[in-house]
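Reopening this ticket.

The earlier resolution said the output was attached, but the attachment link was broken on my side. Pasting everything inline this time so it's all in one place.
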Amino acid sequence: MTRAATGHMFKHYERARDEQGDYVKFGNEDIDLTRSHLNYNLAPAHQDGQGSFVRQRCSEVRMQNRKDVNVMCSWVVTAPKDLPQADESKFFLKTYDFLAERYGKENIVSAFVHLDETTPHMHFAFVPVVTDEKRGGYKVSAKECVTKSDLKTFHTDLSLCLQHSFGRDIGILNGATAEGNRTKVQMRLEQAKAELEKMNFELSAAEQNLSKVCVEGARRAQEASSLQLKITSLAKERDALQGKIEGLQTTFEKIRSVAFSERALKELNPKVTDKGNVFIPEKTFLALKGMAQGLLSYYIADKEIKPSIRQAIKDFESTLPVKKPKQRGDDSR
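Inline output:
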């Protein structure tokens, strides 16, 4: 990592706090503050701090004057899953000795063991100093210090070292380490592939749910359309029934008017002459004429009330005075 990036890691190693007062984290670890006092550093403490040591060590060897130069490397070594808790201290101490021998004690920045996170682990930080084959002496070169060959053999070499110390295999080599240590790019790629596979699975499930929702939505839409058609049909039937009721009401009122006129006619007590003629006032005649015209128009307009109109007409005709037939011998008088 570059000089600019080291400050954040130093704070995490030492359990320093940021400007908001929160502990600086590396990745997504959850820190259990009740266990932070159990953390310790296996490397000798530097009087002026880790950053000062890195600057001092880089000044003692050859280093390119560029901001992108990696001035520090770090291994994060996690205790094996099945390692007894009683063996953890020995595990980290022997691992520290292995790393110090591999990368040089004089280059060690720190080796903090964290026991307050999810799994016990050690951050072994060092300045990547190697022999300068061209110009002699030493130089800072992370590329030449941590090579692909180093990554490939790291876990195998560590496993053999710890197997010798413990007298047994403690489970360093597993599915993730048996074929050699993976670079950060490889690990991120594998992590991205796993996340992509998970996302594809979730997407497929979401698509299936969406399909079910669409089918259910189409079914409900069809039901709603059918109900709307039924409502429209019922509304038309209602309007037709309402019109029929209003028509019958009108007919009833008009027939009642006829009956009223019939009663009025009876009350007139029309005069009948000897010749059978009926004399009524002109006003009454006009009323009867209008009534007859109205009945005729109802008869033509609504076939359903034909029987009632006919009966009304018959009833009306029966109220009129009947002209008496002439008797024999009347002409001789």
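Reporter confirms the inline version is readable. The chain has two domains: 3-181, 202-319. The longest helix spans residues 184-268.
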